[in-house]
Amino acid sequence: MRRNVSLLALTLVLLAHPAAWAFEVGAKAAYWLPKFSGEFRLDGSGLRGTTVDASDHLGIDDENFFFGEAWLWVGRHHLTLAGMRVDYSGSKVLSEEIVFGGRTFSASGRAESSLEYTMLDLAYQYDLIDLENVLAGFSLGPILQVKYLDGELRMSGEGSVNGAGGRVSVTESFQFPIPLVGLGAHVGLVGGWVEARGRAVGIAYQGDALWEVQAEVALTPFPFLEVLGGYRHFVIDVDRDDVLLDYTQTGPYVGAAVVF
């Protein structure tokens, strides 16, 4: 009998606390305008490739991208799935000889190159701090995340293979699953009509590193609709399976979300 009373009391306490049963599902689409800088290298055929600057050597310029997120929040538990397609390309007359994927590309020849990949993120956050009565709500908690990159590096142009001249082309695919840890925070403002959200995740091990920081402010002009703006900073320095990716993307984004 005493056990039944205790269970009933605990159930009533949990039901009386909004954070225990709060439920939210939503989806966001945003347009990112990042500045891009960095370098690549592709080894192959027993040859170490030339580390090339994306802009100076290859003529790769800034590009803008859409990205999306979908989330499910139940109480203190937050589950988020995000995705983005990245596509950079450039064309430039090479100022020096470049070794790329075991092929030699000639100086003074024009080379076309590209970096394309799909980036997927699955993240779980648990709110260690959840204060509904501070401002219009405040939460803070650790994040466990897996980032998956699936893409290709390409280069084509005038060059040589085994001493013979002509046009050469190299395509190399890569798949990088990368575990991340971090921290996420949320602050409600102006009666819940304005929200500020931020998150930072990263990892560094065995010479590789990846960091991502994102902060945004969302307005709710109508029920179930958010208009938002933010800033995203992404840094990757990974050298695996003959592929070096070492670059930074940083810039603002704007978007909208539906929330239920």
Task: Characterise the protein shown here.
- The protein is 7% helix and 70% strand.
- The protein has helices at 2-16, 18-21; strands spanning 23-32, 35-42, 52-53, 65-74, 77-93, 98-100, 103-105, 110-126, 129-131, 138-161, 164-189, 194-205, 208-222, 225-240, 243-259.
- The longest helix has 15 residues, at 2-16.
- The chain is elongated.
Characteristics:
mainly beta, ten-stranded antiparallel beta barrel, elongated, 260 residues
Number of helices: 2
**How far apart are the termini?**
40 Å
- The helix content is under 10%
Total beta strand runs: 15
Oligomer: single chain
Kindly state the mean pLDDT as a whole number?
A: 90
If you compute it from the alpha carbons, what radius of gyration comes out, rounded to the nearest whole angstrom?
Answer: 24 Å
Series of secondary-structure elements, N-terminal to C-terminal: HHEEEEEEEEEEEEEEE
Question: Would you tell me the structural class of the helices and strands?
Answer: mainly beta
The largest beta-sheet arranges its strands as 1-4-5-8-10-11-12-13-14-15
Please state roughly what percent of the residues sit in beta strands, choosing from under 5%, 5-15%, 15-25%, 25-35%, 35-45% or over 45%: over 45%
- What shape does the CA trace take? elongated
The parts where pLDDT drops under 50 for at least 5 residues are 7-19
Taking the sheet with the most strands, its summary is: 10 strands, antiparallel, barrel
